[in-house]
Amino acid sequence: MTVCAIQNTEATEETFADGEVESLNRIREAFEVFKTQSERLQASYDNIKKDLAITNEQLNVKNRALSEKVEELRRMSSRLQCIVDSLTDGVLVVNDDFIVERSNPAAAALLGMPQENIDGKHYDQITNGLGDVKILQSVIKYGKPSAGKERTSVNAAGEKISVLAGVAPIKSGDGVIIGAVEVLRDVTELRTLQERMNCQKRMAALGEMAAGVAHEIRNPLGTIEGFARLLKRDLENQPQQGRLAGKIVEGVQNLNYVITNLLTYAKPMSLQFEEFSINKLMDGVEDVLNERAARSEVNVFVRRAQPVFQAKGDIRQLKQVLLNLGLNAVEACQKGGRVEVSAFKKGRNTVLSVTDDGCGITSGDMQKIFDPFFTKKEGGTGLGLSLCHKIVSVHGGEIMVSSEQGKGSVFEVLLP
After folding, report:
1. What is the pLDDT of residues 264-301, one digit of tens each?
2. Residue where a domain stops, chosen among 266, 293, 312
3. pLDDT reading at 162 higher than 60
4. How many CA atoms lie within 13 A of 409 on its CB side?
5. What is the distance between the alpha carbons of residues 310 and 263, in angstroms, rounded to a whole number?
6. Are 192 and 109 a contacting pair, CB within 8 Å?
7. 328: closest CA among 367, 301, 355, 307?
8. pTM higher than the cut 0.90
9. For residues 124 and 133, is the Cβ–Cβ distance under 8 A?
10. What total number of domains does the chain contain?
11. Which end of the chain is more exposed for a tag (fewer CB within 10 A), N or C?
12. Strands 338-346 and 299-303: what pairing?
């Protein structure tokens, strides 16, 4: 190898050596930069991790507080729902589209349908005449509550009821009206009691007046009857004239019967309460009803209680009530008609029932049948049902009547 070649080789090796050193330096510098950046990233990561831990802890605190608030709201909502469900008044919560969002059991009972058939339905679909959507519209539009207004209708269960309805607006937190709440109070029993009290007042006033008139009439009637009997005796040999005198006596006796009923009706009633077998009462009316029904060719069925049970009251007066109702039923029937008399227990009450398939009672007459002197029967006094009503009332009971013209009537005496 020549000297020149050797020199070129040595120069090349020095050049490679210098290149390697430079590369190593660059690698070392890059590594230092990487290390520095890694330390910075690690520091940043540690800071982020620390901040994240703090944030997580803050979130946990807020979540716990929020959960407590949600639970508190749930308890409050549940408590409010329990309160609403416990109310004896019906409650309907309606939104601004008149959809019932919430109701309570009392509302379901008043409307005569299950609660699940109320919630989610349109107001008009479920109120059946007991509600007034126009009042709801006015309350939601103007925000002015509506005081209790009385409404009477037949609910979904077929029961005639009267309610007092009050409506108030529901507002959101920012004061916007979002719906209304309606409260329904059942006043059916109250109105029934008021009607009964008014009826009793009318009956008492008429009874007192009738009693005064009866006392004034009874004395001259006694004189007329006495002279008529003497006349009839003197006319024994003149049958035609004697028969006419007998008619006078008969007429006076009929008037005396009416007067006796008037006096019985007007005077305070004294009852002799005792326990008795209900079938003893049924036995006491069967023969009389059968005898009267046979003349009218009406079929009478007296159903004795099975099993027999004890009732409490004045059996003599209750027999009069049952006879009066039974005889009225027989007279209401056409030839071949049917009358059924029965007694049974309904809860803690004793029920005496008289059913017929006779002519029935008009809705107009239904309101007056217990008034003194009201009668549609030729020759009737109009005191029979009034006296029945009085006897039953003194027993602490009531008489329920249902009737349909041309199909018959049902009288039920409810005794405690």
Report:
1. 766 667 778 889 988 888 888 888 888 888 888 888 88
2. 266
3. yes
4. 25
5. 31
6. no
7. 355
8. no
9. yes
10. 4
11. N
12. parallel
Radius of gyration of the chain (CA): 47
Helix 384-394 × helix 315-332 angle, to 10° = 150
**How far is it, in rounded angstroms, from Cα 113 to Cα 117?**
7
HSE on the CB side for 225, CA within 13 Å?
A: 14
Predicted confidence band of residue 192 (pLDDT cuts 50, 70, 90): confident
Those residues with Cβ within 8 angstroms of residue 91's Cβ, 6 or more apart along the chain or in another chain: 84, 102, 103, 104, 106, 107, 181, 182, 183, 184
Q: Residues 400, 380: contact at Cβ < 8 Å?
A: no
Report how far Cα 338 is from the mean position of its chain's Cα atoms.
33
Q: Over 80: is that where the pLDDT of 375 sits?
A: no
The answer to whether residue 16 is domain-embedded is no
What single DSSP character describes residue 289? Answer: H
Distance CA 267, CA 137 (A): 55
Q: Give 252's contacts (C-beta < 8 A, 6+ positions apart).
A: 221, 224, 225, 228
Helix (H, G, I), strand (E, B) or coil at 147: strand
Which tokens go with 33?
A: 């930069």
DSSP 185-224: EE-HHHHHHHHHHHHHHHHHHHHHHHHHHHHHHHHHHHHH
Same domain, 101 and 33: no
**How far is 214 from 198, CA to CA, in rounded Å?**
24
Q: Are residues 249 and 323 in the same domain?
A: no
The overall longest dimension of the chain from CA atoms, in Å, is 200
Q: What single string gives the DSSP state of each residue in 84-138?
A: HHH-SSEEEEEETT-BEEEE-HHHHHHHTS-GGGTTTSBHHHHHTTS--HHHHHH
In a domain, 56, yes or no: yes
